[in-house]
Here is the input.
Amino acid sequence: MPTPGTVNSVDHALRLIALLAEPGRQAATVSDLARALELPRPTLYRLLATLAEHQFVVRDGKGYRLTLRLLQLGETVLSAGALQAVCRPYLAELSAATGETVHFAVLDGDKAGYVAKIEGEHAIRMFSRTGWRGPLHATAVGKVLLAWSGPDLLAGLAGTTLERYTGHTLTDHEALADEVRAVRRRGYAVDRQELLDGLLCIAAPALAGERLIGSVSISGPVSRAENLQAAAAEVRAVGRRIGAAF
Here is the structure.
């Protein structure tokens, strides 16, 4: 029975969803659901109609099953606080090992959404911050997201103007496509002062199997370019560890 002070209909709906989400459960009939939840059939019909209206359940033969709508909602949660909680320990290790500022970004529409940032021992001034949305074509994390998100994302930029941030920014679509292919081949991306003069970044993907979780990067001044390039293997290793955590 619902706890006093709660909303009965919401309680019933959540119990219904939990029941349909049980491992191994196939489509369930209204009779099965009514018995398991001890609810009248008319109540079940109204609940199922409401959940179907919002695309949480679908009719499957004589029964009902959940749709992928809950998975979509889960993806939203994953890209926020839960994602930060998983990746921050690994980012802290990378920052401590390299002394550089470390970022983690995810695809946010047609931008790179920065969900975590850890300042390094040798941090330099830059305008990136948690919550900032950076350009895909002018950042190392953005190039990684382009390289591992499938061809549609890159194709979607073809009809747009690639903004120039410095004299090094790639604003030609063919040159960007060549760069994205190179990123995929070598396993990491480089931002060679393309967003900010004097700044160099190295980024690699965090993959859970074939699924792209996000991109991890280190950033520092071009005066430390040799050290940053040498740390590419460490960046890739951290990306693999974050991906494995998912």
